[in-house]
Amino acid sequence: MKLVDIHPIYNRQKVRFITTYLCQQPFSSQADFWFDSQPCDNMDRSMTIYEWYYNIPAVKWPKGCFYFTPFLYVVIQIQYFPSIINDVVYGEKIILIRERPKYTIGTYQIVTNSIEIQKTRAEFSCQYRSLPMQIFSIELYSTDEGKSISLYRVRNREVQSIIKGNLQWPENFYQVTNPVDIIASDYLRNALSEVICQINARFWTEHDDEIPMEICWNNHYSRILNRYLPVDEQIVPETHYLILIQHI
């Protein structure tokens, strides 16, 4: 399948969140079924392609881009507010095409198992080695005790902020206000006040290029962390995310 757009259809007063999964085989073949945490028959052969939360603006995919997936099924999970008696079924508008657009969407995974529990930090840094990409959204994962998280690009001794978030915000895809380009030899580094963390960066690249298969893993360039450390890295954003980007 070639996905070029996913647009949630919702009433913000009635729908709490919408999550979209790609599955090799759905958990149920019924058109309408309830599930707890397993939308797909085999979660190892599935992925989350899109998320929307009621108080967070929907992420917009760049025009002229597509996401190629070998999965055959799309499963949409919609959770309504429990106090709402809903008489309307909401969902998503998903656009699939046959022709190949100019740009390809992919996911770049950033994760670490280099945990320093005494410091309550999970630091990672890496050097990107693949073809150019443009990061346009970020998905954040952590524990319930996490506070602040930031992701930076270091190029030619200059630091560029990609995203700064509060880990008390919902686990969700967040739009990067200004897409950030990443090229070979750039360094990526984090600032995180937590011991467990994973970041999934959604990007687009030229379709003739191969999708980068590498991941940013562990803290191999600790000198980058020590040398390029913004003074406000541990300051937790207090303003709610919706207020921060309501004019985008």
Automatic annotation (TrEMBL):
<dbReference type="InterPro" id="IPR024548">
    <property type="entry name" value="Cu2_monoox_C"/>
</dbReference>
<dbReference type="Pfam" id="PF03712">
    <property type="entry name" value="Cu2_monoox_C"/>
</dbReference>
<protein>
    <recommendedName>
        <fullName>Copper type II ascorbate-dependent monooxygenase C-terminal domain-containing protein</fullName>
    </recommendedName>
</protein>
<keyword id="KW-1015">Disulfide bond</keyword>
<dbReference type="InterPro" id="IPR014784">
    <property type="entry name" value="Cu2_ascorb_mOase-like_C"/>
</dbReference>
<dbReference type="InterPro" id="IPR008977">
    <property type="entry name" value="PHM/PNGase_F_dom_sf"/>
</dbReference>
<dbReference type="GO" id="GO:0016715">
    <property type="term" value="F:oxidoreductase activity, acting on paired donors, with incorporation or reduction of molecular oxygen, reduced ascorbate as one donor, and incorporation of one atom of oxygen"/>
</dbReference>
<feature type="domain" description="Copper type II ascorbate-dependent monooxygenase C-terminal">
    <location>
        <begin position="115"/>
        <end position="189"/>
    </location>
</feature>
